[in-house]
Each structure stands twice: as structure tokens, then as C-alpha cells.
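#struct-help
A.M.: can someone run this one for me? Single chain, 750 residues.
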Amino acid sequence: MKQLYTAMLLALCPLYFYAQNTISGTITNSEDGEPLVGVSVYMPKLEKGAVTEDSGTYTIKNLPEGKYKLIISYLGFETHSIEINVMEGENHFSFQMVPSAIEIDEVVLSTPFHKLQRENVMKVEQKTIAELKSNGAITLADGITNIPGVASVSTGVGIGKPVIRGLSANRVVVYTQGIRLENQQFGDEHGLGINDAGISSVEVIKGPASLLYGSDALGGVLYLNPESFELPDNTSGDINLNYLTNTAGYGTNAGFKTSSEKFRFLIRGAHNSNADYQTGNDVKVTNSRFRETDIKTGLGYQSTKFKTELRYNYNDSDLGIPEEIGVQNRDRSPLLPNQEIKSHILSSKSNFFLKNSSLQAIFGYTFNDRKEFEEHHEEGEPEPAEEEEEEGPALFMELSTFNYNLQFNPQWGSITTIFGVQGMHQKNENFGEEVLIPDAITNDFGVLVTSHIHFNKSDLQLGVRYDLRSINGEQNGTMGEEGFINAISRDFNNFNIAAGYRVDVTKNILARLNLATGFRAPNLSELTSNGTHEGTNRFEIGDPNLKSERNFQIDLALEYQNKHVEVYANAFLNNVDNFIFIEPNGEFVDEDPVFLYTQQDATLYGGEFGLHFHPHPLDWLHYESSFDIVIGELKNDTPLPLIPANRWTNTLRVEWDSFQGVKTKSYAFVTLQSVFDQNKVSTFETNTPGYSLVNMGVGGEIKIFDQAVGIKISGNNLFDKNYISHLSRLKTDGIANIGRNVAFNLSIPL
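D.P.: on it. C-alpha cells below:
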């Protein structure tokens, strides 16, 4: 028996030693050689990392053999990226970091090559949720408008949907938990539907991304990175409290996460409630109130050659839909009309690591339960001023979507290639009195191949993709009557290509050139609408013969950077064939104007330009300025609708590491945002005058009873300017945007 145990132990030894592939080293300051504590050493593809200890040392265990990117980052130092060849046994890598006032360069996760922002061929904007919160963002949709080139079509402060370089709705694809988010985004009053709790950062791809994401990614992608798991053998938790003065809004979220060497778990819950917001002239916008409950959780397992994670998100939102100025109170329960939306998002991501290749499999299921309650009263009766109990929702839609994304990633020297198969099966069902879009089945299937080729001072990225979408909708109603929708069966297919080149022109100058095509099949609303859309107060008529939108975009980006200044210029030209839009025909049905879906070729062009000045030795002082512009026109020289106004943002920020001898990380800023007149408007829009808003904020860490506590205070629209955004859906009713708002945030780690 003893000999048997010995034989079994010897047989397991190779597996044991293989599982102990490690990389370790010491991170020091290049100026004085002192060890640096708290440096992040991270391998993005493996999602494994460590933080340096007091001696500056780190160790990452249980690594598969092969070549992997290693990212070393620390506030106040240059981020370093290097490819490490992990071999069997112990591997060593030590590094001296160079001090720098430049912000930390983050890894881009929305593209499959896991490059730093400056290494990526495509220009991708990235912001952490902490940054957006520091600027006083009320919601996630509100926060992303701080990114140049990104705006939001809003209905008050609770409902907003992203606009990227003038394109929105189905032309912008949203990804969360690594899967495509589907939540009836065709509707003007259908918001983003994601709470920022449990989201670590936001990435924005501007321009066609159909190569990576298929149909609908014609205008860009909003990619939401979920909160990461804790490092191995660590446990942490936190509580965050928020208060907003304008809406008397309060919010709280709390999270807990723990990880062993192989198993990982996290959970976060959030709840917020807001009363009606107040404009700059002290008027409360009736029924702009909203409340939301959100739960996110995840479970992961990771061994040497395999890792997998399962994530789930439940979101329950009650949203008032403001229509006019009425009751003035601080009640929080939505009046009529309002939306009740419940969303379930379940995703699974698994990776298999081989020596020179890897395989990734992502599966997702989303279920969107959308109900809309409306006022029902007879002609001559007074409209209800308070919330009423409804027999049932006027609009009740359930949308279930299954996604799959399989990618094989072989590595041949300096060439990294992705072979992918992606698809979607979607079912829409109606249970309410009204039908906006019919019961329907949508199926997507796509195949792609894209390669990244690294040269000494440049990178080339090429790709091609084929997609097929089928839409089959059922007949609804009685032929000849209002609201009748005929059965529909349409197939759409398209080839897309993309090519990008990034080059270090000099030591300080970086250039990017990207050429890409994209496509979008018309959605069910555009194909089948035939009735009053209460959310937009118009009678909409679709066209079942609409063609797919196809576009070609050219992006040129230039960046200059030295120790004191960073300057960038991003320009684009976007030609869209068969652009689908809606316009009135001059007729009315029951006092609602009739709008027809039609299409025509269109062109959009513009860009983003900016600088960041941080003079040495005043590294604590930062001046940032950005200007973004977009112009959209149809072939007949008529301006496109919902094009954001030009915007110029200037920020002066100071940062310090200590105060009166106490070590802390603190900041303060003041921002002047100037939005220009929007006079280039479509035939059914009106001009919008410009305005300027002043925002300020301060924040940092303080110690209370030896407990580090994060505090943020930000004030937006400090001078209580009364203004109306061109992209506000309340503009037609003359209702202004939010006035002065001061946000308080308290973060307590546990």
C-alpha cells in the first residue's frame, strides 16, 4: 500500500509542478531605487494580477505557459506594457518605474487584443465610473456625456440613451458583462437601463464596429466593463452613499467580494430614489421622478489552463415620463404615464489557454420586461393629478435574447489573429392593449477573422466579416383598421471590412488611421409601425421595404505627448447609404402628427480636439480643454435630426498626495462647459440657443478612527442656469433641463 501511495504521489508531481508556474519580481522607483508599494502588476488576458508589498515584491501564481501581456501601473508613474514568455517553473521580471504626471494608461477591454490605449490601433475612449461620479453624474447615461464626442438623448434626468458622433438608438450597440444588451432600444424614451453600481469603467468605440459586433454597430459601441473580482487570497467590501440636492435623491450601494487561489465571488446591491428635478427657474418638472433597484453578482473559477465566470444582473426601474408642468411636490412614486422595467442579464465567459493559442466562449441571456401605464379618462373628464391604480399596462412587451460568441486566438510570432463565430436568437412578445412592434423572431449569425500585426514602431490591424440577419414578424390587428400590422419576413446580409494602422511618427507623436464599413438592418419599429406612439406623441408609419443602412468611415487621429503637455486631434468622415429617419407628412390622426419612416443617403463629419497641460515642476496642476463637433446632412442638404450642438469644455484641476503632513489622495476642479447654438436642424426641429455651465468639485481620502473614507462633493450648473439641451425630448414642451445640483458621495471600505 505504501508503494501504491508513493507511485500515485510521483504521478501527480508533474501536475503539481506544472500548476506552480509563477512570475515574481520587484518594482522600484527609477530615480532613487526605492521599492514601490501598491503597484498593480496585471495580465489582462488571464485576468490575473498582484499588488506589490512593502518590499516592492509581487508574485502571480498558477500561470499557463505561453506569451502574455504584462501591465505595470501606478499613479504618478508611466504605465509599462511588456510581453512576457511564461515558461515552466519560476519566472522573474523586475522593473524600475519612471515618474510621470500623465494619467495612468488603461488596458482596452472592448477590443480582443488587450492593448493599452496608446498601443491600440483603434482610438477608444475610456473613463472609470469613479471619474464620472467625481463630475457629479446622476446616472450612467448622464455620466458618459463627459466623454468628448458622446452625448445623450434625454427625457428628464432618469431616461437617457447614448449618442456617439450624432448617431444613436439602434446604431449604437451597448455591451455589458461581455454580451450585447437588448432592451427595446429603438424607442426614443427607452433609456440605457443599466445602473453604474458594479460597473468599473466605460469604453467608447466611435465609428463602425460591425467587424467586432455585427449588425447595429454602425455608429459605435458603448462597452461597460463589470467590476473585477478580488485578487487571490483577498477579501474586501465597501459601502457607498450618495445624495443629490436638486432631486432630493438618495442612493446607496454595497459590495462584497472574496477570492481564493481558484474560486472567486462577488455581489453588489444598489438602490436609489429621486423626486422631480428642478429647473434653473425653480420649477419642478412633474413626473420626472424615478427609482431603481439593482443587484449584480458573479462567481468565478480559475486553474492553470482554464478560467470561467458566471455573472447575473437584476434591475428593477420605475420611471415617470414627464409631459407637462403640473403638481409641485417632492413625492417619489411615479405618476401617469410611467414605465416599469425589469431586466435580467445572465452571462457566462470561459477561456481555455494553450501554449500558443486560446479559446474563448461567451454565452448570454437577457430578458427585458417592459410595461407602460397611461392615463385613461373619458373626454370632458379632468385628467388625474395623482397616481392611479391601473387595471393593466397599456403597453407590455417581453424581449428575450440569447447571445453566443466563440473566438479562437492563435499567436504566430508578432501576429495575433481572432477567428470568431457570433450570433443571436431574439423573441419579442406583446401582452398589452397597444402594440408598437409585432410578436417577432430575430436571428443573427456572423463569422469574422481579424489580425493584429506588431512591428517595431507601428501596428497594423485587418479584418473581414459576414453577417446574416432574419426578421420574422406576426400579423397583428384587423386589416384596414388603425394599428394593423402585416406579417413580415425579411433577410439581410452584408460583408464588412476594417483596416487600421498605428505608428509612432516620432518619440512624441502618435498617428492612427482607420477605415471601416458597417451596416444596420432596419428594426421592427421602422419596418412595421402603424399607430400612435404615446411616448413620442406622434402617429408613426413604418415601411416594410426599407433597405439596410451601410456606411464607410474614415478616422484620422494624431496625438502629441511630452512631460508637460498632451495634444490630440481626432477627425472623421462617415458616409451612410440608405440612412433611415422619420419625418412628418403634414397630416394628423386624433391630433397626433403623422410621421413616416423613410431613407436617404447621409453624411456626418467632425471630430474631437483637446489638450492636457501639466507644467513641471507643478505636476499637481492640470489644465484640460476639449472641443467636439459633428455635422450631419442628408443627400438633399437637409440637416439630420438629433445632432448634438458643438461643445467646448475647459477644466482646471489640482491634485495633492498629502495635506498638513497627512498622506491622502485628493483633488479639486472647476469646469466651464460651453455649448454653442444649434441652428443646423432638421425640418421638424427648432433652433436651440447655446449656454454655458460652471461645475466644481472636490474630493479625497481622509482617515476616521484609522479607517480610510472617500469623500466627493461636486456641484453642477452652479449658477442655476435655465437652459434646454437640443437633445432633450422635453424641448418641444418648453421644459428646461436640470438646474443647480450638488452631489455628495461617501465611500467606506470595509
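A.M.: thanks! The CA atoms of residues 26 and 57 lie 4 Å apart.
D.P.: also worth noting: The chain is about 5% helix and 55% strand.
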